[in-house]
Write a structure and sequence with these properties.
The structure holds two protein chains of two kinds. Chain A is of the alpha+beta class. Chain A has helices at residues 47-55, 97-107, 112-125, 141-153, 171-188, 199-205, 223-228, 233-238, and strands at residues 3-13, 20-31, 36-40, 62-67, 70-71, 82-85, 159-163, 191-196, 208-213, 216-221, 243-251, 257-261, 264-268, 280-285, 290-292, 299-307, 312-318, 321-327, 341-346, 352-353. The chains are: A alpha+beta, B mainly alpha.
Chain lengths: 356, 759
């Protein structure tokens, strides 16, 4: 447990004077050394506030933050041995690239030769060697981003904080930058906390993802855990797409649960606990877990079909509920058009039961 | 990201507070503790607070209350009563209504003209826009009565245009002439405000209205005008206040018409009746305050256009040719008029007797540069000296207002604006009433506040604090009461010796910073007297020179050299306490007590020496007046540039290891420097063209050109006045030119620094 948040809350007085805003509520988080953890969630969920509390720009209303065993609540940002990459890059416009990257080293009054050596190394790491004398406004967005990263990394911090660093870049650049960031982080082994609202970024970069909503941590887990085994409705709906299907237990034995769905009986495998007969439950079926199989007894009507090239996206009306399905079989040459009746099959060994 | 600012702290205890909001009192106490932990922050706050208290609130309070007490000190409402009196009433009321009428006419017409200018510049694609803008800015850099002067020269009884060209016997004096002059002098303010608003007006709104079927006129009426109302209203209110506060123009061109500002002036200069002047000042203040409140709470709340936002990029051109050309023509005519008026000022200074004898002569110039050079040099010196002081104070206050949260922030903001918002005559009167006698009560209050500050920072040990306070004050009072006849000069020699002794003592104990600081203080105090040895030879040398420009100039120099070193005792005391508090803190605990006692006691004596705070007839009161008048602009410039810096830039500096001071030095200051320097130019201009605030503060030894023109008018006449005005304009233009060069040189390295980069 290298970096921990213990029962962290942050409450702001509301604008206008009366009442208050609970930005973060009772957050508990343990981050291992060397791992990259992403705080993921929609706007206003508290992820940026949490990051800023780690950095020291906000003070927790309650709770403790520990780094390497020591409580750091009292430390101001300049004493925390952390670095941050800001969403707006925050490059100093009045200094050239070298001076920007060397800024933190200059604060420590390191020797000129030491500074030059370290800056040179990190510039190579972000592939900006040769740009030292340039002015910030001569660089493109992606290059500025790398300068911001270099400036943070040259400090050899205990923790690297990143606040939506890629949101100001265009899509192609975002893709290449996120793999770069991940590989650099892996190579240096720096414990990192990354904030984003983009789930693809989160899934690509992270060792673990912290899904937040309305100030609360909904779930913490690896990308696989978050995607395949979401613990709340919000998590299921936020990452990827989900169909929520109501089911009723017929036979509640684990390892071979039988439920009734749309008057069809389905056998669910790999279930860990037992359920009382007649109990209602919600099943989560991702679109790719719904197959179109004309031989199935479960029928539905296609309401929308979009051909996207690498897969076909369907909205199918099944017993009054609109189910999203995806067909990515490259051999499937035809599309089922609107109004067609199709049979669908739920892949029983992938479907996840939403915890109560 | 939440927009609630984070606070820069040094050491903070973790707060495990319940979510319940703490009561107001406790919250303030906690804020106070937080601020006090950062000595530099606290000192800035204290410094700003004291400055505003001494030089804004105190004088204004005296000016306002002065109307209620007769010379014997008894409560007396005579002058207020005169408004309803049957004998005085009609005249007094007439003056009041004339003043309001002048204000309304000037503000409405000035705003209108400003709007036409702004519209022409932004929406009509006016050819030569750069020149039009420059010409519009000229009235802001000239003395307040320059236009009145040239209006008389051109349109007066012997006016070039009215008499010579048209053969009329035209009377330009009176309300019409006055309003004309005021509109030309002040319309630039409206122009700048409305231009900014028009630039930020999103044309898509008008296009949307048009696509919904609205004709041009309807669009103007229902979309453009409502959105501009805050700007229009704001301009009108501002112009109204400027018009009421105007002294120079009414003095020259109002003729038989009397307005409040001239009435106040005559009460002081003609009748020496300060009670009357104060009473009238209060009457003048009321409309100003009403306007100020209207501006703050009505106009600003209704603003739909963010003036700090970026201008919308598209350049819209008004489609209606009629509107377009009407605006352009009016603009051009005004520009020609302005050029004509200022050219007249310059040219007339070279004529023998304008209107009668147009032959060229250098007589007025030689006069101005020999006899009058004293006033010119004094004005330039004091304006220049006040400029960095105003910029510094403005910057400190701006930083506190923008970046820090604390109770009383509103008061600081209000106070810094108040100095420039009230009519200058009121401030001038306030300064005289406040500073022409010794103010022992005031001085004691100041000492008490600063002594508390001193002990708080000098030592962390409560017992030491109390001892230093009691013994130090006793030492100071002892010096004062036991040696009342001692003059300041020898006293300062003794103090100087003591400080040097402490410095030596610190040096022996290897306290280098302490030694240097105390030695510095000692030397500075000695210089109070020693500077005479530099000044006197200069004065003597000047007497060797021939009578003329150089002889006067050098003599003035001997006076100027003394100014930085001969601060009035109270100001000296304040400075000493600020500096020594931090130095004493760095001492070992053992020696803190004796050194602290001395460091508190010696300045304490200064607070009561002679006539505390009797600043009239010193150059310092003029400096203070200058600073107070240009403070709002410095604060606004500082605040605007601070707000443009993306807060994450300063956060980036922090998380890279820099503390608040390092960040301020290496990041904040370089980024606001261009705006700071631009603010310097504006301050200098404001100082050089100041009239109403300093007209009561000038003396035989310290003269200000603008005031001299008014008082020497009989001697120098219109031509002499023109010569002096031209000198002021030239000096201001030179200063602007130098500043522009410096700014451009500074920004060359950065290319195009966009301060909002990173936002």
């Amino acid at each position: 447990m290298y970096l921990t948040l213990e029962q962290i809350s942050k409450t702001f007085p509301a604008r206008g004077g009366s009442g208050e805003v609970k930005a973060v509520i009772d957050a508990d988080l343990q981050i291992e050394q060397g791992e990259l953890v992403t705080l993921l969630g929609p706007s206003g969920c508290g992820k940026t506030t949490t990051l800023r509390m780690l950095a020291g720009f906000e003070f927790p209303t309650t709770g403790k933050i520990r780094l390497d065993g020591k409580i750091i609540n009292d430390l101001p940002p300049n004493k925390r041995d952390m670095s941050m990459v800001f969403q707006s890059y925050a490059i100093f416009p009045h200094l050239n690239i070298f001076e920007n990257v060397a800024y933190g080293l200059n604060v420590q009054h390191l020797s000129r030769s030491e500074i030059t050596r370290r800056v040179g190394k990190v510039m190579e790491l972000v592939e900006l060697s040769g740009y030292e004398k340039r002015a910030p406004n001569q660089l493109s967005g992606g290059q500025q981003q790398r300068v911001a990263l270099a400036r943070a990394l040259v400090m050899e911090p205990k923790v690297l904080l990143m606040d939506e660093p890629l949101s100001n870049l265009d899509a192609k650049l975002r893709e290449s930058m996120r793999t770069e960031i991940r590989s650099i982080q892996r190579r240096l082994g720096i414990t990192s906390v990354y904030v984003t609202h983009d789930q693809i970024e989160a899934m690509t970069l992270s060792d673990r993802i912290v899904v937040m909503n309305g100030g609360l941590i909904e779930q913490v887990g690896t990308p696989v855990e978050i995607y395949r085994f979401p613990r709340t409705r919000f998590v299921a709906g936020f990452i990827g797409r989900a169909n929520f299907i109501e089911a009723r237990v017929v036979n509640g034995q684990p390892a071979n649960l039988v439920v009734k769905v749309y008057d069809q009986t389905i056998f669910l495998s790999k279930v860990k606990s037992s359920y009382p007969e007649g109990a209602r439950m919600t099943l989560i079926a991702r679109p790719e877990m719904i197959r179109i199989n004309q031989e199935s007894n479960l029928k539905g009507t296609v309401r929308r079909a979009s051909y996207l090239g690498n897969f076909v996206d369907y909205d199918i009306d099944v017993a009054g509920q609109l189910i999203t399905a995806v067909d990515n079989d490259p051999r499937q040459a035809s599309i089922y058009t609107e109004g067609t009746t199709v049979g669908i099959e739920l892949l029983a060994d992938c479907i996840h039961i939403l915890p109560a | 990201m939440t927009d609630i600012p984070s606070e820069i702290q040094t050491e903070i205890q973790a707060q495990h507070t319940p979510a319940r909001k703490p009561s107001g009192f406790i919250q303030r106490y906690r804020e106070f503790l937080l601020i006090s932990r950062d000595p530099v922050l606290f000192m800035s706050l204290l410094f700003s607070g004291i400055f505003l208290f001494i030089f804004v609130f105190f004088p204004l309070a005296r000016a306002i209350s002065g109307g209620f007490f007769n010379p014997e000190g008894l409560f007396d409402l005579t002058y207020f009563g005169r408004y309803i009196d049957s004998y005085y009433g009609p005249v007094m009321r007439q003056i009041f209504w004339s003043t309001i009428q002048m204000g309304i006419l000037s503000s409405v017409l000035g705003t209108l003209l400003g709007f036409v200018f702004a519209f022409a510049m932004v929406r009509c694609g006016i050819p030569g826009a750069r020149w039009v803008h420059l010409i519009a800015m000229v009235p802001t850099v000239s003395p307040p009565f320059a236009i009145a002067l040239s209006t008389i020269l051109l349109f007066g009884r012997n006016g070039l245009i009215t008499r010579r060209l048209l053969g009329l016997d035209y009377n330009v004096y009176g309300m019409h002439g006055l309003v004309f002059v005021q509109v030309i002098t002040f319309f630039t303010v409206a122009y700048l405000i409305l231009r900014a608003m028009l630039e930020r007006l999103n044309p898509s709104m008008e296009e949307a209205a048009e696509s919904l079927g609205a004709g041009r006129l309807r669009v103007f009426r229902t979309v453009i005008l409502p959105l501009l109302i805050p700007g229009l209203a704001g301009s009108m209110l501002l112009l109204f206040v400027e018009s009421l506060a105007d002294l120079g123009n009414p003095m020259f061109i109002a003729g038989n018409l009397t307005v409040l500002s001239t009435q106040i002036f005559l009460a002081v200069i003609g009748e020496f009746d300060y009670q009357k002047a104060s009473a009238l000042s209060l009457v003048l203040l009321i409309p100003t305050l009403v306007v100020f409140l209207l501006q703050r709470y009505y106009v600003n709340r209704r603003s739909y256009i963010s003036v700090t936002g970026k201008p919308s990029g598209k350049a819209v051109v008004e489609k209606s040719g009629l509107i377009r050309w009407t605006c352009i023509i009016i603009t051009y005519i005004t520009c020609i008029l302005i050029i004509l008026l200022y050219a007249t000022v310059v040219v007339s200074s070279f004529t023998t007797a304008w209107g009668v004898n147009f032959s060229l002569t250098l007589r007025w110039w030689t006069d101005a540069l020999t006899r009058g050079i004293e006033a010119v040099l004094d004005t330039t010196f004091l304006s220049a000296l006040a400029t960095p002081l105003a910029a510094l104070t403005g910057m400190v206050i701006a930083f506190l207002i923008v970046r820090k949260k604390f109770s009383g922030k509103g008061l600081l903001d209000f106070g810094s604006n108040l100095g420039g918002a009230v009519p200058g005559t009121i401030l001038g009167i306030g300064f005289i009433l406040a500073f022409n006698k010794g103010q022992t009560a005031m001085s004691s209050i100041l000492y008490a506040v600063l002594a508390l500050f001193f002990i708080f920072y000098a030592s962390p040990i409560r017992r030491q604090q109390v001892l230093i306070l009691i013994l130090g004050t006793s030492v100071g009072l002892a010096i004062h009461f036991l040696t009342p006849e001692i003059e300041l000069d020898p006293l300062l020699y003794v103090f100087s010796g003591i400080y040097l002794g402490i410095a030596l003592f610190s040096l022996i104990r290897r306290k280098k910073t302490g030694a240097i600081m105390f030695a510095g203080i000692g030397v500075y105090l000695a210089l109070y007297n020693l500077v005479v040895f530099v000044a006197d030879p200069i004065a003597k040398a000047s007497r060797q020179l021939e009578i003329g420009f150089w002889n006067n100039a050098v003599f003035q120099l001997s006076d100027y050299v003394k100014v930085p070193f001969q601060l009035p005792p109270v100001l000296l005391g304040i400075a000493l306490l600020f500096i020594s508090a931090l130095v004493v803190n760095s001492e070992n605990s053992r020696w803190r007590l004796p050194i602290g006692i001395l460091a508190l006691g010696l300045p304490c004596a200064l607070f009561f020496q002679g006539m505390p705070l009797a600043l009239t007839s010193t150059p310092y009161i003029i400096l203070a007046a200058y600073i107070v008048r240009s403070l709002p602009a410095s604060v606004r410039a500082g605040a605007a540039s601070l707000q443009q810096i993306d807060p994450s830039i300063e956060e980036a500096s922090q998380i890279l290891g820099a503390d608040a001071q390092y960040t301020f030095r290496k990041v904040t200051i370089p980024l606001i420097l261009p705006a700071l320097l631009a603010g310097l130019i504006f301050s200098f201009t404001r100082h050089m063209t100041s009239l109403s605030a300093i007209i009561f503060l000038v003396t035989a030894r310290w003269r200000i050109v603008t005031a001299s023109i008014m008082s020497d008018f009989e001697q120098v006449g219109l031509m002499g006045a023109s010569a002096y005005s031209t000198i002021i304009i030239v000096l201001v233009l030179i200063a602007i030119g130098i500043m522009n060069l410096i700014i451009r040189r500074m920004l060359r390295g950065r290319g195009d620094v966009d301060l909002s980069m990173g936002a």
